[in-house]
Amino acid sequence: MSSVNRFIQFNNETVNARRMIQLEHLARALSRAPYLTLTVRKLMEFRPKEGAISMSYFWQHREPDIVQNGQLSDLYLLTAGFWSHFDLPSWDRYKKEVEHFPLKEFALQLALSAEEFRLSNLIRQERPGTDKAFTVREDVYTTYHEQQMSVNFNKGFISDSLFNYLYIALRKGSQATALTGDYPDYYQRVLAKWEFIYDAKSTADCCKICLEILYVLEEESTKDLTHTFMTLHENLMEPAFETKGQHEIDQQNSDNQTAKESIEEMFRSWHRESEKQAGPHLEFDLSKGNKGKTDNGRFEEGEDSNEIQSEGVGFSNSNKKSKQDATIDGSAEKKYSKQSGKRFGDEHQFVTIEEKRIDLQEVSSMKSKISTIRAEQKPFVKAFTKEMRKRIDQKLESKRTNLSKGRLMPNLTSLLTEQRPKPFYKKNNPSLPLDAVFGLLVDSSASMIDKMEDTKKAVLLFHDVLRDLGIRHDIVSYYEDAYEASELNQPNTFLFCHQVEDGLKDHAAEVLSLEAHEDNRDGLAIRWMAERLQKRSEKHKFLLLFSDGEPSAYGYAANGIIDTAEAVIEIEKKGIHMLHLYLSAEQPVEEQMQLFQMMFGPRTATARNVDEFTTQTLRLLRRMLYLVVK
To answer: Which of 150, 488, 493, 629 has its CA 20 to 30 A from that of 447?
Structure first.
């Protein structure tokens, strides 16, 4: 896991994960496409092959109100405008007509600008609540184009300057005429045709007007746009199916397919094909197989005396169960791997999960080290368990008095002193053991190497507290093998220090055997532990994550923060209480605290040493267990 405090960081920006998740959910709702994903790029984009849409980076580093409304306006245009109201056949005809013009890029981006204006008004009519977002959008973009208009003209970028002018003209109307004083005369001739955009009712109408403008400019300007203002058109293409062994069949099928009428249909077409290609197939060309030894194609008849050189295990329920049955002490236990697929999210579909017991470190002073740590932490453990047991005893001994029925009270004076005596009482039901289960996750990435000793002490503290209270719990270390990770395989390992099946056994030596490794996938680890907790019958479930910052793994750095935030939201909906614990000798900087806030919300405890960490975490643990006792 990469540290937040980087030595040289040219782009030191962090994605607002929770904001992105909210916007992505809104995009899916407006487009009625649950598979849609949302990203931020230089300009608005459609990327049907990835099933993604992109908001513009243009809105970053502005006032919060402008950022919010600007991003919303992008989202409205993409999902409520272009998504279903942009006519692809008309657009394809227009592209063919402008292909031979020297101002081809100007023609394409001008038509998209006209469509943006038409669709903005259409969305405002259908959804009046979007008016504020579009008003902010037009104010900011109009100011931007006014600044760029003269700059581009002075630099000799005439087409760029004309594009700026036409954008302003649609928003300012007659006021834009005063801007053409120092500009060529043909600006006015172009404006006369451009004003017909106000009456445009379809994509075809906008394209027709832009084509007429192109004929006016044919003899006036030959230099195309220097800057890029619109990129919505760059990825609007039909699916091209290039699966090995079926290229010719797919080519014939694609010739028979009808042209898509809208961007929505194009996205759904891409989504269907990607789902097909992701599913099981009968292929004549062998592209991949099981790992094992080969004998250069030779084979021989099997005999009882032959030595077993390799073995394979299937994925039936019985095999899964047999693989999950671990030995009590961890000895003679085989490790096993399984492909996660999309069970833990699209970001982890090529992850291979390996679950095994941690290997004990052979250190002669292990017992004395454990004794020393426990002697230091004994006052905290004793005080905490004493307080929790006191709460349990109070609940056990409390009783309700002055009842109309129940057990007769020893003191019956109320029969003489009260007109309507209630001399009965009832004891509360005996308190059951704490009905809770805990899952402790320890980030074992490389960046934890300087914090691992203190982290092990904190984990051992929790282990002792939970054992004293009779609460079952998991203690698991997780990491990704950065050296073996590839595009199609990212091996992740989960090391058990203590399992719920172990009951109240002492595994202090296993906890102190924790080591730092390479990378980490926090979102995967959170979902994996949540899946284990969901299988338990306890009423209250808690997940504690010991980690020092943002996730980092193969192909995971860009979306790791958002994926982790999504995982936290998902497990909260399942009724699992989450707590993030950060232990470091250095005080976390503001950037790190903002990062924790985005990923974990307010559920983060930070400390600079074990004593401070113990105080904070026990306070939070007290609050958690109070829910169980209550």
So the answer is: 488
